[in-house]
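Sequence and fold
=================
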Amino acid sequence: MSHHLVEAIDVYYAYPDGHHALQGISFRISHGESVAVVGANGAGKSTLLMLLLGLMFPARGEVRVGDALVTRKTLPLVRKAMGMVLQDPDDQLFMPTVFDDVAFGPRNAGLDEREVARHAESALQAVGISHLRGRAPFKLSGGEKRAASIATVLSMLPDILVMDEPTAGLDPRARRMVKDLLRGFSHTKIIASHDLELVWELCERTLVLTQGTVAADGPTRQVLGDAALMERCGLEVPYGLRACPQCGFTPATGRPTANA
């Protein structure tokens, strides 16, 4: 079985206040897939990510990463396979320099300094910010911080990248930079986002959550282009998938809709 495999089997989770965040979630993500998790606020996206990473555990059902059932005993294996890029880069960057932040994981894993440097430099090069290695993180732009936070994860050589709102709070230029960066990765990617334009450009598959259940799971353009589904789930069809009301032209396909 691939170490890149991520699977949820009939997963339920309720918070102590009685809120049922997830109610029977099931899906399977295979090697190399780029999968979006979308839904309105409160749909269960953040809860699902925390369960995948073993930050919380299901009340019922199973979460698997590769061959491992996600439990407290298997957390070291799960955390090695999966790397999470947090929504706010400032929560991920805390060292004096960018290099130190990117090197933190390998150092914490007990690698010798030569290996630490190799991992860190490789990750910095992968996201195109080697020139920022000596900069203080708090002096970086929003896009640079996002790239640095991704590098901190890549330095640990994860099989799976998990990203929570990777373009949140970014200006258009920084958003484009992050989008181009993510497009170039061959990792298995799980992206939770409200940015549906990003989703349809980067993810070939989309899971739509609503009230703790999977409302849809399928090809991104098919799922996000379903206006009735989007409305039912408190979402909107991305502009790139909307047909012009006058001529029927759809930007994503470059041609009129079939019934235009």
Notes: Residues 6-256 form a domain with the Rossmann fold fold (CATH 3.40.50.300). The first helix runs from residue 45 to 52. The chain has one domain: 6-256. The mean pLDDT is 88.
